[in-house]
Amino acid sequence: xxxxxxxxxxxxxxxxxxxxxxxxxxxxxxxxxxxxxxxxxxxxxxxxxxxxxxxxxxxxxxxxxxxxxxxxxxxxxxxxxxxxxxxxxxxxxxxxxxxxxxxxxxxxxxxxxxxxxxxxxxxxxxxxxxxxxxxxxxxxxxxxxxxxxxxxxxxxxxxxxxxxxxxxxxxxxxxxxxxxxxxxxxxxxxxxxxxxxxxxxxxxxxxxxxxxxxxxxxxxxxxxxxxxxxxxxxxxxxxxxxxxxxxxxxxxxxxxxxxxxxxxxxxxxxxxxxxxxxxxxxxxxxxxxxxxxxxxxxxxxxxxxxxxxxxxxxxxxxxxxxxxxxxxxxxxxxxxxxxxxxxxxxxxxxxxxxxxxxxxxxxxxxxxxxxxxxxxxxxxxxxxxxxxxxxxxxxxxxxxxxxxxxxxxxxxxxxxxxxxxxxxxxxxxxxxxxxxxxxxxxxxxxxxxxxxxxxxxxxxxxxxxxxxxxxxxxxx
Length: 476
What we know:
Elements: H1 2-17, H2 26-29, H3 34-46, H4 49-52, E1 66-69, E2 72-75, H5 92-101, H6 116-119, H7 124-136, E3 149-150, H8 158-167, H9 182-192, H10 198-201, E4 227-228, E5 231-232, H11 249-258, E6 260-261, E7 264-265, H12 269-277, H13 283-295, H14 311-318, H15 327-338, H16 364-372, E8 374-376, E9 386-388, H17 399-410, H18 423-432
Antiparallel strand pairs: 1-2, 2-3, 4-5, 6-7, 8-9
Helix pairs in contact: 1-3, 3-7, 9-13, 11-13, 17-18
């Protein structure tokens, strides 16, 4: 069975990568095992390495993608086998130390923007295959790495070593718990290891550490993250309102494969994940991930269950919108795609009724897409690009109107979310890119600042994620 699975993966990888810049180059691969390189290429897809290590409009794996952090900007590095600017001189041990321990060749700690705490559970065999791919299946690019833009003393790397000892798991190949269904175990490995889903979907603590790295961490694991480049990574737990409680395994497979289902559509950074990586996963691996996510213990339903309320659709159908802020703007600007009933158009325009992103405690995602627009990327399984306009550029649409329509969407069709987004919130998001901060601490602050008792791990400046290629980089 295992040999058959390996053969299937190898065949799928060769087919998926043929003709692309990510395929193994025969001239470079002549001294390495082609099957091992193909396996490594597939693992690179599982790890979504290319999305972060490719700059906007840049060469594949040559680095240069900006990563914003609270202390300054860092840039992804060149991981092609170029001997001067890339990793061409790395031994297998050097490579392993970087990927699973977060230590680069010169012994300096890597910033945890590199998700080595998740990669720590990758197996030795997968690391060897990944190394073979990067050494023999990737074209060298002589591109200089960009220096970090972090002021001293925060630019010193040695404190990161202490951070790693405190919060990063020691490298140890994943071993499933006894009695675990093999399919679920495979899904757990991908989600918690190379897939590093928790890097975005798990909340972080005071020093930016993920609060849990797997299901043993309790309800925090995959409970949803804070704003990342002004997108919210929602919960992947079985919460019926805020998470995937109403999703089936088939829904999850379809979403990861095509970026769209009848009741959802990919957006923000997840667009890169689907476009660069998950659409290339084998069906078996997609099914394994779905089974694992659905097998996680249920978490307390923070907002109960969702029940559709038809009164909003009736009001909009009747045209009797007097006194309902945002309703007229919705009819004029939004209803043509998302419809009066908030149901959207299957696999084109996502529904707003009961959408976990819409009802999130943090309104940043829905406000961001209203202000800046969005692109639903094409995939091999859904070869059409669908775009939403940026209403900040639509003549006559004001900050107040955008705030009103965000509040309207969050409180209609049975959605039960706060409707306190203001015109000043929209103005700040539009002009400075600041996420919409909500009250979070004991003091009830409306600004994301460091509180005395419960420090906010995110807020303005705490994006800590790369810019996305979707809608920006045509080379994708």
